[in-house]
Structure formats: structure tokens, C-alpha cells
Amino acid sequence: MKTKQKLNWGSILFLGGYHLLMVAMLPVYFIFFGVPSGALIGISILLFFLTGLSITGGYHRLFSHSTYKANKFVEFFFLLFGTMACQGSALRWAHDHRLHHAHIDGEKDPYSVTKGFWHAHFLWMLKAQDPVNPKVVSDLKRSKMIQFQDKYYEILMFTSNLLVTLFIGYFLNNYFGALLFTWLVRQFFLHHSTWFINSLAHYIGHQNYSTEHTAVDNYFISFLTFGEGYHNYHHTFAHDYRNGIRWYHFDPTKWLIWTLNKLGMAHNLRTIPDAKISEQMIQVHKEALLDKLKNSITHKKGDLEQKITYYTESLTRKITQMNQLIREYKKTKMDTSPMPDRLKNLSIEMAKLRKSLKREWRSWKRFSKFVMKLKAAA
To answer: How far is residue 111's CA from residue 195's CA, in Å, rounded to a whole number?
Structure first.
């Protein structure tokens, strides 16, 4: 018989309490103070960005996944504003998130969406959690700053938010508005946008990189979460400092880390090679097309299956060839006495192969759309 999990009354009182307090204070503010000033709204949005980016760039991509290295000043900044985000200590956050990746959708996943949307969104936090396993966060245990934040987290969280609220209240001569908007309302939007990554980003979206887990890419969530919505990619390639890998993907956290690197404040930015990403996408799309074909009405199944195999094998082969040419080009260029003719010939080969690869990729996409539009069998 399964024992009933104990409740976490600290989380219940804090999360439930501030939601109720915010709902009670909002109508009072609008009745007696009217519309909040531009300065108050602007400062609240600024704090939303500072605390939010400290979760995504600090708690998540730096501390949980070590996708890059940062200097002590950057770590301190992320710990300071991460504390104000009211999402637990970096040690606890990273511990739970690493378990989530290691046991995704399983019984040991702290916020598995298979237990329900609302469980993944926030109900899991209302239940008592197991103590932090030192083996899971042994690297973080070596940081004195992270240990200090974890040990005194509750005091630091309330003190930092209270001091900032009092300072803004004094500066704007509006303590009531500072408490309501720069703390409670800002915290409300930050909490739910972060929680959407655990719930909605495992619920509605596309699976371009893997179908072996529930994580999906949801571009709308990326706008709410500083680029964390490309979740299917993240769960497939968790050690890439980017979530949105294309230049046009909205990923402010990626841009922040890139900027820190250019300023000399971050280094060892980890990325997944384009060839590996493309090969993974091709394999996933191949499986999806074969599955669609198996359940469709068409008298050309054999021909279409052969075409799927041809495209996937040809694209994979060309991607491998391109990768080999790039490596050879770089190696030749780094030689003590590089051969200009060899470099020129490699450049010509790469240009031809790149053109061929683009042409075949476009054909593959058109063919994929055709297969996916086939009528399903009754």
C-alpha cells in the first residue's frame, strides 16, 4: 500500500499566502491610489528581468547544467537576484532539476507531467520533498557562496526583498505600491512563467529533436521565460548553453551569456555541433514519417518508405562529409605552413556540398509535408 506523501506547510503558507495577499491588495490599491505610476511599473519590470534571468542564466544553465563557466562576480549577481526570485536556494533548485532530467516522466521526477498538469505546475511544491542528496550536487557543494545561500536562504530571501521594497517605497514615496507591484505582482508573474516550463512546456508544442520524453518546443513560452521554451531541444541536448539555437530564436538568456563571454566574465560556453543536431532531427522526422505512413491510406507505401530511407541516408552522409571537410580545413589552416591550393580546393568542395545539402534539405522538407498530409486509415 502506497503511503500518503506529507505536506510541505511552509510552501503552502508562503505560496498560498502571497497569492491571497496580492488579490486582496490589488483592488484596494486601484481604489485609493488609482493607476500605478510609470516608474513603479518600470521598476517592477526591471526586477522581473533581473530575477528571471538569474534563474534561467544562473540557477538553470550555470548551476544546474554547467553549460558555461562564470567569474565570482557573475555568480554572486545570480545568487543575489536568484534569492529575490523566491524559488528556493540554488543548491535545492539545481538538485531537483537534475533529478528531473535524470528521471524525466518517471516516478523519481519531482515534477513529472505524467502525474498531471497542475502537479507539474506547482502542486509538487506543496508536498514534502526528500532531503538534498549530496551526490547529486557534489560540484555545487564545493562553492562557499552557494552553501552560504542555501544555509541562510529563508532569511536572505525575506531580507533582500524587504530591503529592496523599502528602498523603492522610499524613492517613490509609495510603500504600499512597492510592496504590491515590485514584490508580490512581480513574484506572481515570475513564478507562473517559470512553472510553465515544468507544465506547459511538457504539454503543448513540437518535438523536433526527440519523442522519447514529454518535453516540447513552445515558442510562446520562450517569450515568457527568457528563452526557456525550446524545451524539447533542451532535454535532448541539456549541456548546450543555448535553448534557442537559431539566430532568430527568442532566447535572452543565450544573448546574456554570449555578452558575458565577450566581456570576459564567462567562458567555456558549451554547444552541440550542428551536424549532431541535424542528424538527430533527421532521425526523429524519419520515425515520425514511417509511423504516419504505417497508419495512412496509400497504394505507394513501399515506394514512399524507400524514399524516406534514401533521403535520411543521403542527408546523414552529406552532413558527415561536410563535418569531415570542415575539420580538415581547420587542421590544414592551423598547420605551420598551410598549403594555399589545398585550402582553396577544400573551400570549393565545401561550397559545392553545402549547396547540394541545402537543395536536398528543401526537397526533404517538401516530401515530409506531403507524407504528413496523407489521409489516415479508418
So the answer is: 10
In a domain, 263, yes or no: yes
Q: Which amino acid is at 16?
A: G
- pLDDT at 2 exceeding the cut of 70: no
Cβ–Cβ < 8 Å for 143, 221: no
Q: Is 133 helix (H, G, I), strand (E, B) or coil?
A: coil
Distance CA 175, CA 340 (A): 70
Asked if 45 and 21 count as a contact pair (C-beta separation under 8 A), the reply is: no
State the cell numbers at 167: 528602498
Q: What is the pLDDT of residues 187-215, one digit of tens each?
A: 999 999 999 999 999 999 999 999 999 99
Split into its structural domains, the chain has a count of: 2
Query: Domain limits at 65?
Result: 9-267
135 and 284 co-located in one domain: no
Which residues, listed in sequence order, are joined to residue 206 by a DSSP beta bridge? 217
Q: How many CB atoms lie within 10 A of CB 315?
A: 21
Give the separation between CA 127 and CA 124, rounded to whole angstroms.
Answer: 6
Q: 377 burial class (0-12, 13-18, 19+ CB within 10 angstroms)?
A: exposed
**How far apart (Å, rounded) are the C-alpha atoms in residues 64 and 59?**
6
Cα–Cα distance, 133 to 47 (Å, whole number): 32
Grid cell digits, residue 151: 544555509
Label the pairing between strands 266-267 and 69-70. antiparallel
| pTM of the shown model | 0.89
Share of the chain above pLDDT 90, in %: 79
The SS3 call for residue 205 is coil
Largest Cα–Cα separation, the chain: 79
State the angle between helix axes of 38-53 and 186-198 in degrees (0 to 180), rounded to the nearest 10: 30
Residue 377 DSSP code? P
- The answer as to whether 3 is a domain residue is no
Domain boundary among 267, 291, 312: 267
Residue 113 counted as domain residue: yes
Please tell me the distance from the alpha carbon of residue 140 to that of residue 195, in angstroms, as a whole number.
23
